[in-house]
Structures are given as structure tokens and as C-alpha cells.
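Case study B.
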Amino acid sequence: MERLTAKQNEKIKAAVSIRDSAKARRETGLFFLEGARLCADAAENEIEIYRAFFTGKALEKYSDYSKKILASAQECYEISEEISSRLSDTQSPQGIFCLCKAQEKNALGADIRPDGKYIFLENVQDPSNLGAVSRTAEALGVDGMIVCGGCDIYNPKALRASMGSALRLPIFTCDNAPETLKELGKKGMLTLASTPDSSAVKVTDVDMVGGVVCVVGNEGNGVTRDTMSACKVKVTIPMDGRAESLNASTAAAILIWEMVRK
Amino acid sequence: MERLTAKQNEKIKAAVSIRDSAKARRETGLFFLEGARLCADAAENEIEIYRAFFTGKALEKYSDYSKKILASAQECYEISEEISSRLSDTQSPQGIFCLCKAQEKNALGADIRPDGKYIFLENVQDPSNLGAVSRTAEALGVDGMIVCGGCDIYNPKALRASMGSALRLPIFTCDNAPETLKELGKKGMLTLASTPDSSAVKVTDVDMVGGVVCVVGNEGNGVTRDTMSACKVKVTIPMDGRAESLNASTAAAILIWEMVRK
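Model:
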């Protein structure tokens, strides 16, 4: 295994840039993972590992995890403790890092099941919310998550909040939310746009049998007008007329729950 | 209004200590609030304001909020910008701070409605979870939150995550969770203990008509054994048999939703 020792090594600089910059993630189609368990999760879930970095200590201490990662990574490098500190976001790094290929299945491809349940995030900005929704989506067993409008689910904070679920849950991308939703609607799926507007249909009054896509919008502005129009039904979570609203990830959790509730 | 200028003033030191220490909050029965809106919320919601601190600038800039606070606070002080920075948790403080009296109604008192819906938190530790649950509880319109076992809902982080809901929602304390739940059960309330154990009763199979108290436990260890035994029914959120669990605040959101769902 090649050993990298210079902090200014191009491969290390590239990894840091992908860790820190949404733009670098978009341009390379790669994302950054830290930690023995999370990197092994990626390997087990057939996420393509482009580069893996290990400290000598980590190879020993986390040998089971390391084996899985070594077996699936295209390129592997041993790094010094100093580089490990440079790469790490944490106080006491485990010394294992990966660059992985982002899931890039388009929501208009064949992988969306017309009878499946999908949560669709439009312009959700807060990494903790993105991670929390993916965790809930996986735990409650929806068929996948569709992300649109710069929802940066591979932001390191989002990945951490997701507890690895973003690696296990099928993730779909989409370029144009209204068009994608119209197409999914034509395939017979029920497309729902969520809104705090209490005149919308109560989520408890919607028949969720069959394929459903439910859109959750930006924390401040909600679902965009065009996306709202492209959906078959506007739904709301009845809130007893209170002024205060639910957090975006909590609203998403209740909508996901209603999709899968039997 | 008396003007405080020395950072080492005893009143300022006491405020900082109540802001930073759960022990000081317990001992004094007070909690610390920062921000014009949040402090005015306290005044409007008949939270007792023991001391209020304002910078000269804040009194002008937030005069509407300030009037409400001035009208209800027992003691008011003008503070320097320097003291405001000392008191503040934020980069650009608004210059308004209060020490308020914690709600201390006991869950065995007369204020719990036997036909009401209550979420009960036992040993929930993470301030973000505490704040998130209180926000959800208020938005979805449960009748109150019962906290037990050092759930520190007046932690500044919890208050921030609660978006002020901890000031508006009736909060009840309890010294002994199992005994309190047994008593509430004797009053005819349905007492539920939540668990990830998939052999428990599905939450969707529980009849939530009438009074209900639902217990959510510690993030790592769940509901304690004695509390579990004291409840009439163990409930679980069906998760399609997935290994990964829901975040505590998400689980609480779904349980609250099921309590109020019509």
C-alpha cells in the first residue's frame, strides 16, 4: 500500500476539498466518509469506494472493518497520524477515511417502483434535517429518497446525522422537480406536496395504498409554487390551529409514517 | 432602572451560573433566557420573570418586546454592552436576558387532566431532543409534557431548539416515574411505555380515545425497567424489522402524532 506523508499531497488536498465543499462534491460526483464503521457500511452496501485512507494503527485496531474496505476500494493509501488529523472532523479520529461515489440514479429512471413509497426533498438546506430524514426514511422502510435543488445529503454533517442510512437507502436525484413529479404522476403514482396551509387535504384523509411520492420543501419557504402545482394533492399535517410549525424533519417523519402506516 | 457595569457583579455571576449549570438551575428553580422574542414570550405566557437585563440599545431597538418584559419582571437592570457579551451565547447578542421561574407543577397535582394527552420524557439527555419534543408536542397540541430523571428542558440549547414552546406548553415534573405512572393509571389514564422491542403492541393497534400518557426513554437505554412495569401497555413503532432505530425525538414525534391523530 502506497504511503502518503506530505500534508500537501494532491490526494489529501482533493479529499479535504470534497469534505468541505458542496461544489467539489458536485463536480467530482464523490463524497467524503470518516470512521471505521461508516466506511465499512459503504463497502457492504455496494457504494463504490474510489479511495480509502488508513493510518497504520487503524489497520490493526479496526482490522475487520478495514478488510471489508480494502476488498472493495479501488485505491488504498496508508497515511500518517498527522494527515489523519488533517482529514478528520473529530477530536480523536479513528484514522479511516474514504472518498465514495455518490448515488446518482435519476428519479426518472427505471429504479423507481411505481407502487413504492418515496420521500422527496426539495431545497431542504439544514444538514441535520437531511440526515434526520434519511434516518427516519430508512428506519420506517420507505423505498427511497428523491433529492432535488441542492439538497446536499453528502455533506459530512448530514452523513453523520443520517447514521449511515444515506449509504443504505436508495437515493435518487432529479434535475427538475415539477417535471419529475408530473412524470411520476403519469406512471400512476400519487404525488403529494406538503404545506402548513390548513386548507389543504389532511394527510390522514389521503388514501396511501399504491405508489406515493411526498414532497417536503425548504425549511423557510416550503415547497416551491411550480412543484406544488405539479403534484396531484396538497397535504397538511393538522395542527389544531396552532401558529407554531413543526420542524422540517419532524414534518417529514410524520408524512413518512403516514405513507407506511398500516 | 439600576445600571450594572461590573462584570463581577453578583447578579451577573448568578445569571451566568444559572445559564451554564443544571445544578444551579435545580437549586434556584430559575432558568436563563436570551433574546427579545423569547423573553417577551415568557412574559406573555405568564412565566414568572424574576430578573430582566437590558442594554440601553436593546430598550430602544426592541421597545415593544421590552415593554412587555418590563411590565412583568420583578427586577429590571440596565447592563453595559460588555456585560451583554458576557451573558450571551451568540455572536451578536440582542442585549435582552431574563432569569425566569421554572414551571414546577407536579404531575400528581390537580392540573393533569385525566382525559388529556401527555408525553412523558424519562432521562432524555440530549438538549436538542428535549427541545425538539417540546416543539412537536406544542405544534401537535398535546396537553402537556411530563419530565423526569434529570430531563433538563431549561438547558439553553434545549430552549433554543424548542423555539419557545417550552414556555407555552404546560410542563410537569415528577420525582418518581413508576409511582407517578401508577397513580395516573389509577385515575383511568392509559399509560404507555415505548420500546423498540418488536414484540410489544403496535402503536397503531392502541385505542387512544381518552386520557393517555406515553413514556419515551433515554436515547441509549430506553425506558427503565421499573417504569416499563408501571405502565399498562408496552408500545412499539413498527419498523419493518430494520435493525436501525429512530432518533428519540423522531420516535416521540410519531408517538405524539398517534396520540392526537384523528
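The longest strand of chain A covers residues 49-55. The remaining cases will be described in the next quarterly update.
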